């Protein structure tokens, strides 16, 4: 049986105009933020189903977020740390380091808030892979060329990401190269689609019927019937 891991959720407060801006148009900033809020809450639920603890590395104004009360309730009792560092790669490395400081000796499994279809079962499977002999890291490719999950047996190994360009079509490959160059033995997790566009939101919502995310996307389709996969 896999031992406990620290699941790190890297998140941005779902404030209108600050999140999911590529959904606009057709979405309004408020509706885009509602979709982001739903995705974050579903992700936190999934993280709660993984053996161990959850650490949320958060940036942005929680009080101004869509669904602020629900977010506050979801974060209650969780360790929340501020994102720190210049650039996304630095913030990712810092989040792993902060999680290690809070829960020494545990591996870390980091996800964002763009893959609400990542279930507790899928995350737990990633944790299981990380516990296998001869595995130092788990990396989940994303359809856009990035990645959606990073598991590390040694959280401080996230320092290898410094210098890796983020949010590009080569980020996944460059991250894999950087991890291997640091001497890590990497296995790949199931690829998933990051939600950035309206079409991607509709496609992912179809995978998680009944979820908060699916309900938020249904509202988008109701207001913007031209949206399709």
Automatic annotation (TrEMBL):
InterPro entries from the UniProt entry: Nucleotide-diphossugar_trans, Trfase_1_rSAM/seldom-assoc
Pfam families: DUF2064
Stored PANTHER family: GLYCOSYLTRANSFERASE, SLL1095 PROTEIN
Name used for this protein in its record: DUF2064 domain-containing protein
Species of the source: Pseudonocardia alni subsp. carboxydivorans
